[in-house]
Amino acid sequence: MDVQAAFDKLLETHPVTLDGDVPDKTERQKVSPDYQRQLYERWLKAQMKLRVRHVLAYFCRRLPTEKQVGIWIVKQGWTSNFPNAANIIKEWKPSGSVDMVMDSKHIQTFTSSQKWRGLLVADVEGKGKGVIATRRFQSGEVVCDYHGRVITAKEGHHIQKNISEEETVYMFFYRNQKGQPMCIDAHSALCECHPKKQTVGKFINYSKAAANLRPKSYNVTIDGEENEGIIFLATRNIEVNEELLFNYEKSFCGDAGLAWLS
Predict the structure, then answer these.
(1) Is the domain of 123 the same as that of 82?
(2) What Cα–Cα distance (Å) separates residue 138 from each residue in 60, 130, 213, 234?
(3) Which pTM value belongs to this model?
(4) CA separation for the pair 59, 103 (Å, rounded)
(5) Nearest CA to 58 among 90, 23, 105, 108?
(6) Are residues 129 and 242 both part of a single domain?
């Protein structure tokens, strides 16, 4: 029996799990006295791969900080054979289905707190306000959301008639996942749920030719409450000091995106 055969036999009684302990020496010797040490090393290596995938799956669409990863790893209760946070950051890249983005507790936290990092609202020549990247974003990464009060399109058009032309640019019309015409009203300087915070997404400017973001509608249930809105995903790698832009006039079909009403 070679090492691989011995390891396969060990897994029959001691499968590799996220929270399991490596089989002790006695158990490994029962399988193969000659390869017990190799069995120890292979089992730990397999568990490490499993744990790394587990961490990366949690932070699937938004690059975390090393501190965030470290805190999350500690919360898992792993006292040994746990991933190194710095190595996780080096290995990270966007993963998983775009349709499952909002299942991520990590992304849910950002949409709730509005503490999106790596973004700066600044004056852009010839445009007024705009949003600049202060860190690199990878293609497919969630950059931020378009945050505001979600209302029907009919309500949105009524509000448009009663506010200044300058404010109307912060009315985001779209169709939700059910095909209903909706609007995100972000025309107020500060939103109701974050009265002391100016949200970022509404300041992202439009461009047909230079768009580096695409919007996607979402519908997710959090703590029994149904939430819907818009998230922006990077369509390519975005560099530091690059302005964030999306094509408002581009039409999307079905669950893959939005159908513009304006």
Answers:
(1) no
(2) 12, 20, 11, 7
(3) 0.84
(4) 11
(5) 105
(6) yes
User: How far apart are alpha carbons 148 and 171 in whole angstroms?
Assistant: 9
Is 261 inside any structural domain?
Answer: no
* Rounded-to-integer distance, Cα 56 and Cα 44, Å: 18
Could you tell me the residue range of the domain that residue 71 belongs to?
A: 3-91
Mapping DSSP onto H, E and C, the string for the chain reads: CCHHHHHHHHHHHCCCCCCCCCCCHHHHHHHCCCCHHHHHHHHHHHHHHHHHHHHHHHCCCCCCCHHHHHHHHHHCCCCCCCCCHHHHHHHCCCCCCHHHHHHCHHHHHHHHHCCCCCEEEEEECCCEEEEEECCCECCCCEEEEECCEEEEHHHHHHHHCCCCHHHHCCEEEEECCCCCEEEEECCCCCCCCCCCCCCCHHHCEECCCCCCEEEEEEEEEECCEEEEEEEEEECCCECCCCECEECCCCCCCHHHCCCCCC
The length of the chain is 262
Q: What is the pLDDT of residues 93-134, one digit of tens each?
A: 999 999 889 989 899 999 999 999 999 999 998 888 999 999
Into how many domains does the chain fold? 2
Cα torsion angle, 116, 118, 120, 124, sign: negative
Reported as a single tens digit per residue, the pLDDT across 132-160 is 999 999 999 999 999 999 999 999 999 99
Check whether residue 128 and residue 244 sit in a common domain: yes
Given 91, 117, 151, the domain boundary residue is 91
What CATH number corresponds to the domain at position 212? 2.170.270.10
- pLDDT tens digits, 14-41: 999 999 999 999 999 999 999 999 999 9
